[in-house]
Structure formats: structure tokens, C-alpha cells
């Protein structure tokens, strides 16, 4: 992460000092930092880090980010667990697994999956 932060700061310095821009995605994010308050060094670092892994190992990277975001947002994890427990309590045999109808009824879970997939 430190290396990624150093690259971002170096690119920002290059853009400010030499007016030299490659105007790739990273330069676009750095440029947008001036007008968008949510774009911070940490946010850009996480985005670039995630994009690096997403291009190499999509599923493991997505799962890693999902776990990271759930750790950072415990209410999301709590609601996911609540939703799953409600469905499992309705089942006569908890060992039989989920049906397609069960899965479709998990609206919060689907919203989290869609958000993670973006």
C-alpha cells in the first residue's frame, strides 16, 4: 500500500510541477481530488490496489474486498447474518441447504453482492 501511495503522490507532484499528465485513470482520479471531497489518498490507493488485483484474480479479489468492506461496516455484516438466520429458521431441515426461492428472497444479500460487483 505504501508503494501505491508513493506512486500517487509522485504522479500528483508531476502533474502540479511539470504540468505533465498521462491522463490515464490514475491522473483522472488525482485531478478529481480537487473537486470531490470523498476522493482521498487512501480511497484512491484502495481503488487502484483493487483494480490491480481485479484484473489478475477477479473472484479472489472481489471476495477479499467484500470481507474488507464488511469488516469496515459491521452493520452490513449484522444485517446479512440476520437475513440468513431468518431464512434458515423457516426451514424444516437446516441441513438441506438453500433453494432458489430462498436465494431470491435475500434482498439485502443481493444488494450487497451487486455493490461488491461494481
UniProtKB/TrEMBL annotation:
Record's keyword terms, sorted: Iron, Membrane, Metal-binding, Transmembrane, Transmembrane helix
Gene3D superfamilies found in the cross-reference section: Cytochrome P450
InterPro entries according to UniProt: Cyt_P450, Cyt_P450_sf
Domain of life according to the entry: Eukaryota
BP term (GO), one: brassinosteroid homeostasis
Membrane spanning stretches: 43-67
Family: Belongs to the cytochrome P450 family.
PANTHER family tied to this protein: CYTOCHROME P450 26 (PTHR24286), CYTOCHROME P450 708A2 (PTHR24286:SF305)
UniProt-recorded name of the protein: Cytochrome P450
UniProt source species: Rubroshorea leprosula
Amino acid at each position: 500500500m505504501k508503494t501505491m501511495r508513493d506512486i500517487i503522490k509522485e504522479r500528483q507532484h508531476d502533474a502540479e510541477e511539470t504540468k505533465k499528465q498521462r491522463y490515464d485513470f490514475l491522473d483522472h482520479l488525482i485531478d478529481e481530488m480537487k473537486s470531490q471531497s470523498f476522493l482521498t489518498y487512501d480511497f484512491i490507493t484502495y481503488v487502484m490496489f483493487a483494480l490491480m488485483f481485479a484484473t489478475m484474480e477477479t473472484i479472489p479479489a472481489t471476495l477479499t474486498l467484500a470481507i474488507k468492506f464488511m469488516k469496515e461496516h459491521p452493520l452490513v455484516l449484522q444485517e446479512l447474518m440476520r437475513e440468513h438466520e431468518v431464512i434458515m429458521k423457516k426451514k424444516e431441515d437446516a441441513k438441506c441447504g438453500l433453494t432458489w426461492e430462498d436465494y431470491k428472497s435475500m434482498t439485502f444479500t443481493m444488494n450487497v453482492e451487486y455493490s461488491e460487483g461494481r
